Amino acid sequence: MSTIPHGNGGKMASPIPCVAVRGSTGINLAQGPPSYEPVKTFPKDDSRTCKAMLFSPDGRYFAWVNAVGVKIVLCETWKAVAEIARPKICAIQFSTRSTYLATWEPSFVTQTNPQGTQNLHIWKSENGELVHSFVQKKQINWEPQWSSDEKLCGLLNGVNVLLYEDNNFDRYVHKISVAKVAKFSIAPGNAPYHILCYMPGKPGQPSFGRLFQYPKFEIGEALASKSFFQADKVDIYWHQRGTNALLMASTEVDKSGASYYGKQTLHYLSTKGDTAMVTLSKEGPIHAVEWSPKNTEFCVIYGFMPAKATLFNVKCEAIFEGSIELWDIANRKLIAKIDAPDTTLLQWSPDGEHFVTATTAPRLRIGNGFKIWHYTGSLVYQRPWNNQEELWEVIWQNFPLNTFSPKPISYKAVEGIISNPSQSQAPKEAYRPPCARGQNITFRLHDDIEPPSKPSVESNPSKAALKMKKNREAKKAKKELESNNSTVNGQVTSATTSIKMELTDDPEKNKKIKKVKSKLDQISKLKEQLKLGKQLEINQLDKIKKEDELLKELEELTL
Predict the structure, then answer these.
(1) Count of CB atoms situated within 10 Å of the CB of 526
(2) What would the mean pLDDT of 148-158 be, rounded to a whole number?
(3) How far apart are CA 525 and CA 523, in angstroms?
(4) Residues 6+ away with beta carbon under 8 Å from 339
(5) Where is the Translation initiation factor beta propellor-like domain (predicted)?
(6) What does the alpha-carbon distance between residue 302 and residue 263 come to, in Å, rounded to a whole number?
(7) Phi-psi region of 342 (alpha: psi -120 to 50; beta: other; left: phi over 0)
């Protein structure tokens, strides 16, 4: 589900946002709708070593990294204004008003620098002049953070946050050191500044998200505090006004075994002191979190596939649920549905009328490419990659707020390449392992997807009721799996027995192949236990359901 992000006005004719594309063929820049023509004045980079690219927040500059260094171009002319010759740079970050560009590269300990070489550098965006350098050993959360007016800048230093004023980096003016800080985020908006800190707990103790008003950083001075367990890392999402934040806590591993993607919980904090845990009505990972441009609602996409999308208000109350479609949020009216299979990326254009979907590596290495859509559901442009190329990233050019004026929402599809993609595309067949191809298969593509369960009448079921429910679910899942397995040529044997370990010349690929093969071997053993009549746990049955997905991944790795 997405809303149409509109600006708040604009007197001149709106510009056309460009699209930057990064992949194994380098970096390219093209105009957005309606021309889609390459930007001829952009100095195209064909290097396979382009590690990152970024538009500055106001869209004034575009920067990218390759094996030579960093290049900065002025978007008004697409001419280079600075080249920073540091070949080991691998990450970049613009300041909020585009004045500065921060870069990170690995730090090395030497005899003259036992603390490590200076590896975090801040440069002037307009000419590449060096402003200051720091030692920042860890790449995780390395980025300096500026307030919206750039008067305040923060930097994570070990487990403390150092705060600088007026971009004078010779000495910090305040330090957050009341507890160990693993991540912090400065809210959007001008003074008074607000800073949200993630403070990990010791084993057996809770972690905390604490919201402070600068420069009051004692524990008792926190405007809001939210405790939670099970967090290896957090992601922070502010709405544009900077008075409300969502904190997503994630674990790398789901100890219940229900998910390969770890486990996430979502928490809400506000500068008024309100806190809450966002209650989601479907089990599974959180895929995306986004505030609406009006700052009064946020959308969460979550759950095992098929995922669910829910719109919440700032009281964390669910106010609307649906699948991933295009809606007129103000009138709660469906505009269009689109079919964009294998999408790993979706991003709105700043014009509020178009969005891009893409299939990118390394999430998916086959069928890479991107498409541009109109919000009425029409596909207006597509650019597929061939199988020898990889697409890594697609981003729209940024623009200042209020650049694009709002337009009335239309329900009539504009002319596109395919006026109704969901009807004109050929239906996809279920993936079949090599041993099952060419045979009559009777199961359907979505046989393994359970219908949404109805909410329980009991809000607090007893232990006995939970046990009975668990047994019912296990028996049901076992019956489904036995039914599906018996349809392939009348055999219940695992398809993994026909897969050979085909190693490649790529050590990284070989590691992935061995990992996938190990999971398939586990599934094979579980299926044998199922065949012998053993009662399996829900998470074990869920693992078996992943077999086709793993077989497909193995086939792609060994191509």
Answers:
(1) 20
(2) 96
(3) 5
(4) 421, 422, 425
(5) 226-320
(6) 11
(7) left
Residue 52 vs residues 73, 92, 93, 335, 353: alpha-carbon distances, Å: 14, 7, 10, 35, 27
d(CA 324, CA 319): 16
**Residue 136 bridge partners (DSSP):** none
Render 514-548 in DSSP notation, one character per residue.
HHHHHHHHHHHHHHHHHHTTPPPPHHHHHHHHTHH
- Please tell me the distance from the alpha carbon of residue 555 to that of residue 559, in angstroms, as a whole number: 6
Q: What is the spatial order of strands in the sheet that 233-238 belongs to?
A: 233-238, 244-251, 263-270, 275-277
Instruction: Kindly tell me if the per-residue pLDDT of 425 is higher than 60.
Output: no
pLDDT of residue 211: 97
For 221, 472, 544, the CA distances from 483, given in Å and listed in that order, are 60, 17, 13
The pLDDT score that the predictor gives to residue 449 is: 36
Other beta carbons less than 10 A from residue 167's beta carbon: 16
DSSP summary character for residue 472: H
Closest to 530 measured CA to CA, from 489, 487, 494, 490: 494
Report DSSP state, residue 209: E
Domains in the chain, please, with CATH?
A: 144-324 (2.130.10.10), 442-451+460-557 (no CATH)
- What distance in Å separates the CA atoms of residue 41 and residue 73, rounded to the nearest whole number? 11
The angle subtended at Cα 78 by Cα 76 and Cα 83, nearest 5°, is 120
**448-494 tens-digit pLDDT:** 334 444 433 334 455 556 666 666 666 666 555 555 443 333 333 33
Task: Quickly state the pLDDT bin for 190 (edges 50, 70, 90).
Answer: confident
Residue pair 338/326 in contact by the 8 Å Cβ criterion: yes
pLDDT value for 276: 95
| Gap between the Cα atoms of 189 and 183, Å rounded | 19
Two tokens at 437? Answer: 């191809």
- SS3 call for 362: coil
List the structure tokens of 388: 């020898």
Q: What percent of the chain has pLDDT over 70?
A: 79
Can you state the percent helix, strand and coil of the chain, rounding each to 5? 15, 30, 55
What global pTM score does this model have?
A: 0.70
Of 43, 16, 19, nearest to 29 by C-alpha is: 19
pLDDT for 549 beyond 60: yes
Q: What is the pLDDT of residues 206-248, one digit of tens each?
A: 999 999 999 999 999 999 999 998 788 999 999 989 999 999 9
Under the banding of pLDDT at 50, 70 and 90, the label for residue 266 is very high
